[in-house]
Amino acid sequence: KLSGTTTIIVLGASGDLAKKKTYPALFGLYRNGFLPEGTSIIGYSRTKLNSTEFHARITGHMKILNDEIKNQLSEFLKLCTYVSGQYDKDEDYQKLDKAVEKAESLNIHEERNRVFYMALPPSVFVPVAKGLKKNVYSKKGINRLIVEKPFGMDLESSRELGRALAPLWKEEETYRIDHYLGKEMVKNLLIIRFANVFFGAIWNRQSIANVQITFKEKIGTEGRGGYFDEFGIIRDVMQNHLLQILSIFAMERPLSLSAEDVRDEKVRVLRCIPPVKLEDSILGQYTRSEDDDSKIGYLEDKTVPSGSTCPTFAACTLWVNNERWEGVPFILKCGKALNEQKTEIRVQFQDVPGNVFKDAPRNELVIRVQPNEAVYMKMTNKLPGLSMDTVISELDLSYNRRFSDLKIPDAYEALILDVLKGDHSNFVRDDELDAAWKIFTPLLHKIDNEKIAPQPYAYGTRGPPGIEEFVSKYGFKRPTQE
Ligand code: BG6
Question: How far is CA 72 from CA 30, 36, 37, 76, 236, in A?
Fold first, then answer.
């Protein structure tokens, strides 16, 4: 844990990420008493703002449900100050350093720790990391740097970024955020797998037929088209969030729960996955909604370059070539402007061998990451009554029933707290990032260079029409009962 005085410096404080995620998470930690005593929070970005304007900006996304929270918020805002400056000027960083020193001088502690949160576009990662190291780095305490994706565009650019940052910030000082690693259900995966004897026994190619990891969003790229078009859905969601889920799902038991032991196993399993092939993929791009015509298509978004072939939907099948998983398809699917908002892992088990019943559909285990966290198992049960008829039923652990009195923390709150504690378990290590890019880079280059045309799908539907056929090609059987 950090002892001494802590200052959290948010770079890009007037931007979208800071306003939607970073500050609300810091406020959540403050309300629950998780910020170290005497913490100050200093925002820094280019926009000139006075403190009233800055406070108005960062409170827009906070949920103020009652007077108690309102009062806590006004106390919290007293900790939050703002400095404006450029990202490439030493003298501006020195101004920031002065502001940090001033905040630190309010405390008596000798030890002065600084946590830097870069809520910034990738184009300024390097100049900011340099400017901070040179001018604002604490010489009297611990320094930690939080970085958010995108970490490059492909393997080469990610390595280049790594090479630029490594001489400035040590790996142990760097915290690469993938906010899915802070989600309750993603953290639960380790426990489900390694603290339950019955899952341990069936977690392999002998019992599991296929695994689908799905991310669906109802909204399109509204207003974010410029950013999104450069990256596409594979870089935005699949190469990071979904692959992180896969690696925890598929890894071997770590030697211990230490950050390095856990990440060693994640890297090891990623290295068993060969690069994804275009033949194992399906790409889509949304068009105008069909029923009411109210939602515009991707190409009609003014922030999107005309004629773009950028995918807003992708499904890719990955193979894990090791003793445990050989032959089991891991189908990753993600898309914007779909029929619902949902992230889940769906494990489909093999057919019942030597089945003697009329009907014994495949068992499924579903881990629903969001919304409404749940773990449920689809099993065949006797239909109550005088016959021996069967019915698909659920063993259902829905969090809103089982844990109704517990609050599920926001992913960013959980992760910032980990940084304060110095726990790297839920952050992406440099070799992990490298292994993740190796899996997707050849496919991404092919898509970009050959301008592979995505299949159109209407806003608000289940994705491109070929998706059902795609998943059944990999052996997924929709469990139906006569
Ligand atoms: C971000 C992506 O990393 O994750 C967004 O850039 C996406 O495009 C978001 O909407 C989804 O996060 P969550 O927590 O809302 O599922």
Answer: 9, 16, 15, 6, 35
Res. 482 pLDDT band, cuts 50 70 90: very low
User: Of 55, 179, 241, 424, which is the active-site residue?
Assistant: 241
Nearest residue (by CA) to ligand 1, atom 8, is 236
Atom of ligand 1 nearest to the CA of 149: 3
Cβ within 8 Å of residue 384, ≥6 positions away: none
Q: Whose CA is closest to atom 2 on ligand 1?
A: 236
When pLDDT is averaged across residues 450-469 and rounded to a whole number, the result is 96
- Determine contact, residues 469/331, Cβ cutoff 8 Å: no
- The H or E element containing residue 71 is helix 67-77
ipTM strictly over 0.90? yes
Output the pLDDT for position 1. Answer: 58
Task: Give me the long-range contacts of 160-164 (CB less than 8 A, separation at least 24).
Answer: 161/122, 161/125, 161/126, 162/430, 162/433, 162/434, 164/126, 164/129
Residue carrying the six token digits 């910034």: 120
Separation of CA 68 and ligand 1 centre (Å): 30
Beta strands 40-45 and 80-84: pairing type? parallel
Strands (E), 90-163: 112-118, 143-148
pTM above 0.90?
yes
In the reported structure, the alpha carbon of residue 448 is separated from the centroid of ligand 1 by a whole-number distance in angstroms of 22
Pocket of ligand 1 (CB under 6 A): 179, 217, 236-237
Q: Which atom of ligand 1 is nearest to the CA of 180?
A: 14
Q: Is 445 a catalytic residue?
A: no
